[in-house]
C-alpha cells in the first residue's frame, strides 16, 4: 500500500494487496497519518490533535441543556399531552381506577413487610404517582410500594419510620444526582444471573416475613434463616383461626388468578360473539381485582363478628384518617419508650449524623436496586423501544423526594402492578393521576374500616403476589447456555438468604466482577509462525484489550515465546482497543528486554490512541500499519530491501494458548 505514504488513510479504506488471506492483519479503521513505514510519538500526537475538539466543554454542555429538545425530553408530558384524545382519557381513567383499587390492599400489606405502621404504605402511594405524570416516560409504569423496596427499607431502617422517611428523601436525591451525571449505566454491573438470584431470594424472604401474620407467631431477625428459627421457636403459640383464614385466602387468590387467565370461545377476538367477550371480561376483572374483593369480603365478615363480640382474628388496628401533613423528613429521632402490649420496641434518641450512620451503605444499595427494578419494569412493556434510563432515574428520584414530604417510604415501579395497568388498557402516564386520587380518597373516607382487616389476609395477599417472582424458569436456559452463570445465580440466591439482603447483593456483584476480571486477566493469545517472501516471523495476537489484570500474563507469554525463538516477533494489535498505565510499563519493559537481546519486536496495526499511552513512557516502538511497511522492517533485519508488490503471507504453524 505504498500509495498511502505522505497521505491520510481514509476511514474504512480498502485493502490493496488482494493476495493476503482474509482476516490476517486487518487494517485499522481509525484515521492514521503515515509519512514512512513507521509512526513516531510526534506524529501520533499530531493525529490525535486532529480528532480533538477545541470548543469549551462546559459551554457546549450548557447550550445542550437550555434547548427546546432538552425541555421536551426532561418533561415528557409536553410530548403526549397536546395529542391527548377522548379515547386516551377513557382508557387512562379505567386503568387508573383498576390499579388504584389494587394498590390500596398492596400498600397496606407491604407496610408490614417494611416493619412500619399500616398507613405508611398508602402515604407513599400517591405523591409519587403525581410526579410520574409529569416526568415519567413509560405509560405502563406506576410508582408505589413493592416487595423489594419494602424489604430493603425494613433491613436498612429497622422498622423505625423516621429512618424510613429519611432514607426515601436521601435516596431520591441520590437518584436525581445519578441522573444529572448520567450514571444509569451502573445498573449494567448487575448481571442477569445475579438479578435472578436476588429477586428469588427477595420473594422467599418476603413470603417468610408474612408467614408470621398467617400463623400468628413471633418472627424476629433480618435474614431468612433468623426469621425461620424465630418462628419455629414460637410455633407453640400458633393462632389456629388466623392460620386457617390465611391458608384459605392464599388458595382463593391463586384460584382467582388462574380464573382471570381463562378464555372461553374462539381464540381470535374477531370470531367471538358478545357473550364470549362479556364473560371473558368478567373473568379478567375478577382476576385483576382479586385482592380488593378479598379484602372487602373479609373486612365485612370481621366487622360483623366484632360487633357480635367475637374476636377470632388478629386485626390491622387503627389507621389515622385523612391525608398526612406536608413537612420535611425528620432529621433526628426523639426517644420513645417500648410498648410491650403492641410489641413496639424502645427507640433511642438519634441525631442526623447518627441516622446517616445507621442507614449506612443502604444509601447506595437502595438506589441501585431501585434503578434495576424500575428499568426492568419499563423494558417489560417497551415493545422494542429504547428506554431513557436517565429520565427514569430523574422521575423516580423526584417521586421519592415528594413521597418523603408526606411521610411516605420508598416507592418503585412494580412489574406486577405495571402488568395490571397494561392489561387495563392504559394509554398514557396520566393514569397515575387517577391511581393517586383513589389512594387519597381511601385515606380520607375508608381509613376507619382498615382497622377490621385481618393481618392474615394481608399476609396472604403478599405471599400470593411474590411467590411468582421466584425465577425458577431461568434455570434450564442458563444450564444450556452457560453453566457458570447458573452457579453465580445460585450464589446470589444463597448469599441474600443467609446474609442481610444489602450485604448479600454486594457479595454477589463482587463475585460477578471477579469473574469478569478473571476473563480480562487471561485473554486468548494466538501464536503463529508465518512467512512472507521466505522471511519468517512469529506473530502474536491478543484477542482483547491490554489492561492491568492481563499485563503480566501477556508479558510472560511474549518473553517466553521470544526466548524460545530467534525469529522477529510481530504483535498484531488489531484487537487491542484499550490500555492503561500498567500495560504501558509492561510494554516498555518488553521493548527494553528485546532491545537488550537485539531481538526485533514489531507492533502491527496499533491504534494511535493506544500508541500514545505506550509511548508516554518513552517506549521506542516500531509501528507498522500495512503489509508493505511490515515487509520493509523484516527486510531491514536481513540487510536488504525488496520492491516487489506481490507479497503473499503463508501460515505454517498455529497454536492457541490461554
TrEMBL record:
<dbReference type="Pfam" id="PF00916">
    <property type="entry name" value="Sulfate_transp"/>
</dbReference>
<keyword id="KW-0812">Transmembrane</keyword>
<dbReference type="InterPro" id="IPR001902">
    <property type="entry name" value="SLC26A/SulP_fam"/>
</dbReference>
<feature type="domain" description="SLC26A/SulP transporter">
    <location>
        <begin position="91"/>
        <end position="490"/>
    </location>
</feature>
<feature type="transmembrane region" description="Helical">
    <location>
        <begin position="282"/>
        <end position="305"/>
    </location>
</feature>
<dbReference type="GO" id="GO:0055085">
    <property type="term" value="P:transmembrane transport"/>
</dbReference>
<feature type="transmembrane region" description="Helical">
    <location>
        <begin position="89"/>
        <end position="108"/>
    </location>
</feature>
<feature type="transmembrane region" description="Helical">
    <location>
        <begin position="238"/>
        <end position="256"/>
    </location>
</feature>
<feature type="transmembrane region" description="Helical">
    <location>
        <begin position="431"/>
        <end position="451"/>
    </location>
</feature>
<dbReference type="GO" id="GO:0016020">
    <property type="term" value="C:membrane"/>
</dbReference>
<dbReference type="Pfam" id="PF01740">
    <property type="entry name" value="STAS"/>
</dbReference>
<feature type="domain" description="STAS">
    <location>
        <begin position="540"/>
        <end position="618"/>
    </location>
</feature>
<dbReference type="InterPro" id="IPR002645">
    <property type="entry name" value="STAS_dom"/>
</dbReference>
<keyword id="KW-1133">Transmembrane helix</keyword>
<feature type="transmembrane region" description="Helical">
    <location>
        <begin position="487"/>
        <end position="518"/>
    </location>
</feature>
<protein>
    <recommendedName>
        <fullName>STAS domain-containing protein</fullName>
    </recommendedName>
</protein>
<keyword id="KW-0472">Membrane</keyword>
<feature type="transmembrane region" description="Helical">
    <location>
        <begin position="457"/>
        <end position="475"/>
    </location>
</feature>
<dbReference type="InterPro" id="IPR011547">
    <property type="entry name" value="SLC26A/SulP_dom"/>
</dbReference>
<dbReference type="InterPro" id="IPR036513">
    <property type="entry name" value="STAS_dom_sf"/>
</dbReference>
<feature type="transmembrane region" description="Helical">
    <location>
        <begin position="164"/>
        <end position="185"/>
    </location>
</feature>
Amino acid at each position: 500500500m505504498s500509495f498511502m505514504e505522505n497521505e491520510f488513510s481514509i476511514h474504512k479504506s480498502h485493502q490493496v494487496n488482494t493476495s493476503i488471506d482474509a482476516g490476517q492483519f486487518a487494517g485499522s479503521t481509525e484515521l492514521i497519518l503515515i509519512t514512512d513505514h513507521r509512526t513516531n510519538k510526534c506524529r501520533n500526537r499530531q493525529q490525535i490533535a486532529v480528532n480533538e475538539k477545541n470548543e469549551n466543554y462546559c459551554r457546549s454542555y450548557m447550550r445542550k441543556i437550555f434547548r427546546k429538545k432538552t425541555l421536551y425530553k426532561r418533561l415528557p408530558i409536553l410530548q403526549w399531552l397536546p395529542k391527548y384524545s377522548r379515547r386516551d382519557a377513557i382508557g387512562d381513567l379505567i386503568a387508573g381506577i383498576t390499579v388504584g383499587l389494587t394498590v390500596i390492599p398492596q400498600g397496606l400489606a407491604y407496610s408490614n413487610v417494611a416493619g412500619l405502621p399500616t398507613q405508611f404504605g398508602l402515604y407513599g402511594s400517591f405523591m409519587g404517582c403525581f410526579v410520574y405524570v409529569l416526568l415519567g416516560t413509560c405509560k405502563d409504569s406506576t410508582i408505589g410500594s413493592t416487595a423489594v423496596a419494602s424489604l430493603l427499607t425494613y433491613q436498612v431502617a429497622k422498622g423505625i419510620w423516621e429512618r424510613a422517611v429519611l432514607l426515601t428523601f436521601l435516596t431520591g436525591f441520590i437518584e436525581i444526582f445519578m441522573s444529572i451525571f448520567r450514571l444509569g449505566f451502573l445498573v449494567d454491573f448487575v448481571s442477569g444471573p445475579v438479578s435472578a438470584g436476588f429477586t428469588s431470594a427477595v420473594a422467599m424472604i418476603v413470603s417468610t416475613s408474612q408467614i408470621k401474620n398467617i400463623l400468628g407467631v413471633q418472627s424476629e431477625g433480618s435474614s431468612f434463616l433468623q426469621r425461620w428459627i424465630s418462628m419455629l421457636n414460637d410455633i407453640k403459640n400458633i393462632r389456629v383461626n388466623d392460620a386457617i383464614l390465611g391458608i384459605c385466602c392464599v388458595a382463593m387468590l391463586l384460584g382467582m388468578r388462574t380464573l382471570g387467565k381463562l378464555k372461553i370461545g374462539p381464540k381470535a377476538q374477531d370470531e367471538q360473539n358478545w357473550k364470549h367477550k362479556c364473560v371473558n371480561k368478567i373473568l379478567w376483572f375478577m382476576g385483576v381485582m382479586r385482592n380488593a374483593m378479598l379484602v372487602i369480603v373479609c373486612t365485612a365478615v370481621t366487622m360483623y363478628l366484632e360487633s357480635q363480640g367475637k374476636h377470632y382474628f388478629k386485626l390491622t388496628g387503627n389507621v389515622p384518617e385523612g391525608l398526612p401533613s406536608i413537612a420535611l423528613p425528620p432529621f433526628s429521632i426523639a426517644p420513645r419508650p417500648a410498648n410491650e402490649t403492641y410489641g413496639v420496641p424502645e427507640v433511642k434518641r438519634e441525631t442526623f449524623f447518627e441516622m446517616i450512620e445507621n442507614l449506612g451503605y443502604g444509601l447506595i444499595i437502595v438506589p441501585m436496586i431501585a434503578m434495576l427494578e424500575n428499568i426492568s419494569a419499563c423494558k417489560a412493556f417497551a415493545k422494542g423501544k429504547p428506554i431513557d434510563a436517565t429520565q427514569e432515574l430523574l422521575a423516580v428520584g423526584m417521586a421519592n423526594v415528594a413521597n418523603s414530604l408526606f411521610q411516605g417510604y420508598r416507592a418503585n415501579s412494580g412489574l406486577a402492578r405495571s402488568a395490571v395497568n397494561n392489561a387495563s388498557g392504559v394509554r398514557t402516564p396520566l393514569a397515575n393521576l387517577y391511581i393517586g386520587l383513589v389512594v387519597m380518597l381511601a385515606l380520607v373516607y375508608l381509613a376507619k374500616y382498615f382497622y377490621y382487616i385481618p393481618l392474615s389476609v394481608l399476609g396472604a395477599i403478599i405471599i400470593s403476589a411474590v411467590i411468582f417472582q421466584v425465577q425458577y424458569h431461568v434455570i434450564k436456559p442458563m444450564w444450556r447456555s452457560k453453566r457458570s452463570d447458573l452457579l453465580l445465580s445460585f450464589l446470589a440466591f444463597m448469599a441474600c438468604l443467609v446474609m442481610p439482603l444489602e450485604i448479600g447483593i454486594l457479595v454477589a456483584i463482587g463475585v460477578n466482577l471477579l469473574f469478569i476480571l478473571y476473563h480480562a486477566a487471561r485473554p486468548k493469545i494466538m501464536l503463529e509462525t508465518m512467512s512472507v517472501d521466505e522471511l519468517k516471523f512469529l506473530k502474536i495476537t491478543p484477542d482483547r484489550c491490554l489492561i492491568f489484570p492481563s499485563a503480566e500474563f501477556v508479558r510472560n507469554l511474549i518473553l517466553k515465546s521470544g526466548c524460545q525463538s530467534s525469529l522477529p516477533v510481530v504483535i498484531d494489535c488489531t484487537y487491542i482497543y484499550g490500555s492503561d498505565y500498567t500495560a504501558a510499563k509492561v510494554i516498555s519493559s518488553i521493548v527494553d528486554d528485546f532491545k537488550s537481546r537485539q531481538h526485533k519486536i514489531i507492533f502491527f496495526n496499533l491504534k494511535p490512541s493506544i500508541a500514545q499511552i505506550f509511548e508516554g513512557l518513552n517506549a521506542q516502538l516500531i509501528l507498522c500499519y500495512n503489509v508493505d511497511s511490515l515487509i520493509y522492517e523484516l527486510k531491514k533485519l536481513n540487510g536488504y530491501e525488496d520492491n516487489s508488490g506481490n507479497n503473499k503471507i503463508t501460515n505454517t504453524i498455529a497454536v492457541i494458548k490461554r
